[in-house]
Write a structure and sequence with these properties.
Layout lengths: L4 H6 L20 H7 L4 H6 L1 H15 L4 E2 L6 H5 L4 E4 L3 E4 L6 H6 L9 H14 L5 E6 L1 H10 L7 H9 L1 H25 L3 E6 L7 H17 L8 E5 L2 H10 L4 E3 L6 H7 L5 E6 L8 H15 L5 E5 L9 H13 L3
Parallel strand pairs: 1-4, 4-5, 5-6, 6-7, 7-8, 8-9
Antiparallel strand pairs: 2-3
Helix pairs in contact: 4-7, 7-10, 8-10, 9-10, 10-11, 11-12, 14-15
Bound molecules: coproporphyrinogen III.
Length: 341
Amino acid sequence: MKNNLFLDAAFSRPTERPPVWMMRQAGRFMPQYWEIKNKYSFLEMCKTPEIAADVTMLPVDLLGIDAAILFSDILVTGEAMGGELSFTQGVGPKFANPVRNAQDIDRLETEVTDRLQYVADAIKVIQQRLDGSIPLIGFAGAPFTVMSYLVEGGSSKDFKLTKLLIHNHPELAHRLLAKIAKVTTDYLNLQIAAGVNALQLFDSWALALSWNDYQEFSHRYNQDIISGLNRRNIPVISFCKGSSVFAPIMAEARPDVVSIDWNADLLNIKKALPADIAVQGNLDPHILYADQPVIKKQILRLFERMRGEQGFIFNLGHGIMPDIPFDNVKYAIEVVKEFKY
Ligand code: CP3
């Protein structure tokens, strides 16, 4: 790898500056994304390897980040299991056949890696394009978060149906989570076999759970997935919103990196974790709406706080919003790249 900063930091080795990439770095805040999006549906983009590669490469070419992330979505596992998935502008993801009872759960399939072959094909095209310049991060949704979309039938504010399922019918919830976890393990191993250099598990909505429910309905399955990966030299990043609270539990699943939302002081979190676990984060993405001197000040404040620490990857606490000014994202990355420990 010509640029090893990301992998060095992920394995808690020293780096001359923090590496940088951003969640949702290939997306709607980029005018160039819209040029492609106006011609194809989102799922067509994900399922056509050349297009998925084009979109993956946008932030590599236009922003100069230290790691690329596969262009896809966390819900493709739910689709492969039998969910009728669509994405509509302004509405977001929808499953037309939500999973609500034992029959629905039993109908979901678990031998589905063939249906996800397009992702492996995209990874191969992307690696040819990257040509050893920077690492490629693959990813999947964590079972709890994917379950919430399958059960609710789309995005949700309060996860009411998902919580009713786990509280009234925990045995059904466990059956569903175990099925998703099996598919997710196979899917991430498929991505490793296709050539990704790192993996991130996205459990975006874990913050909806209590401490006990997080352990029972999320962490257990994330742990099963992480321990089932063929992860030789492939760092694994565990992300959730709620990580400010759940980080010590997340660390028990032995990822290489825990990705932290913006609520916590990153150094305090790092010090409470085992020394060989790196942290990723944790700028509030809303800072990228602010004036550029504010952006610079906030990034440098984080870096001063983390000075002297090994195992720190700069990122946002969650993804870039679609209406964040492109120039501010570009500026933030320049600020990171000028910094020296
Ligand atoms: O980070 C990247 O740039 C890589 C690609 C990526 C996408 N989604 C592309 C995408 C990744 C890693 C994801 C993960 C994802 N998808 C998560 C976890 C991360 C997070 O943000 O919490 C979740 C919860 C989803 C489910 C999902 N997919 C939602 C809620 C939406 C947005 C709905 C909306 O319209 O706001 C999507 C669609 C999606 N995924 C888009 C992109 C670029 C937008 C699609 C479009 O262009 O219409």
